[in-house]
From TrEMBL:
Keywords from the named record: DNA-binding, Repressor, Transcription, Transcription regulation
Molecular function GO terms recorded: DNA binding; DNA-binding transcription factor activity
Positions of the HTH merR-type domain: 1-71
Native organism: Paenibacillus kribbensis
Superkingdom of the source species: Bacteria
Pfam families: MerR_1
The protein's name: Transcriptional regulator
Length: 271
């Protein structure tokens, strides 16, 4: 047996906490000396202590834990509860990671505020009509990789090769989580449509303001601000009802599957 001080060192649980668990009948010592009152514990009691600490991690109160121990919940059920908690925490971590990315994007945008000119060259050019197969959905921009995965699965099942990747930004009326986004792949020749995948010909644009930059499909496009400044300062205006286009080419050097060299395209006309 181990004295309470020794048991505390082994378990890394304070003596005060062990005494409190004793008072609550949550973890009674294996033996208490009737004369000195010293508490003694066995090594097997570490397993029970581990369960108590595990239940605390899951958010249960000590009274709830005492009842659960009395009920002798099977080990597999405990594992299941931990898996659920693990998924909940992972979901929170993922959401907070997205917030960190957004904060960095905002900081980058603020850093570039007020700078004259830009770091990219804007080119005006004519864009020919393009045959594409697309998947349009109201969602958030972070779902773009998943949209292309579904689109590429459809092309693969049809025996077609995935060509140039294009994102069409139709806009958003209500919120960032309800954006009208269309993921498209260039087609070499026509193929039948099958909802929700549509084969269509994107119209040719006589005058397209374009800018090439590095980006990630899961992040906001900060280069659009630079392009918008150029359009405004050079006497142009956007053509109404024409979505902003973004042609993406994987950027293999970064090792990031969501990193791209992208050409932002905005249909314009003389203001």
């Amino acid at each position: 047996m181990f004295k309470i001080s020794e048991f505390s060192k082994i378990s890394q649980v304070s003596v005060k906490t062990l005494r409190y668990y004793d008072q609550l009948n949550l973890l009674k010592p294996a033996h208490t000396d009737p004369y000195s009152g010293y508490r003694y514990y066995t090594a097997d009691q570490l397993f029970q202590l581990h369960r108590i600490l595990a239940y605390k991690e899951l958010g249960f109160s000590l009274e709830q834990i005492r009842r659960m121990i009395d009920e002798q919940i099977p080990l597999e059920q405990i594992r299941g509860m931990f898996r659920i908690k693990q998924h909940e925490i992972q979901s929170i971590v993922d959401k907070e990671q997205v917030k960190l990315v957004r904060i960095q994007e905002r900081l980058d945008a603020i850093e570039h505020e007020g700078k004259q000119g830009g770091t990219h060259d804007v080119v005006l050019k004519e864009v020919e009509p393009q045959l594409v197969v697309s998947y349009r959905q109201r969602t958030c921009f972070r779902q773009i990789p998943e949209m292309f995965r579904q689109l590429d699965d459809y092309l693969g099942n049809a025996g077609r090769t995935s060509l140039s990747q294009t994102i069409l930004w139709h806009g958003s009326e209500e919120s960032d989580e309800d954006m009208d986004i269309e993921a498209a792949r260039l087609l070499a020749d026509k193929m039948p449509s099958r909802p929700p995948f549509a084969v269509q010909r994107l119209p040719g644009i006589p005058l397209m303001a374009t800018l090439i930059h590095h980006c990630r499909t899961t992040s906001r496009c900060t280069a659009s601000t630079e392009l918008a400044l150029w359009i405004e300062r050079n006497g142009y205006g956007m053509i109404e009802n024409e979505p902003r286009r973004e042609i993406c080419i994987p950027h293999e050097q970064t090792g990031d599957p969501e990193a791209y060299v992208a050409e932002v395209q905005i249909a314009v006309e003389r203001a």
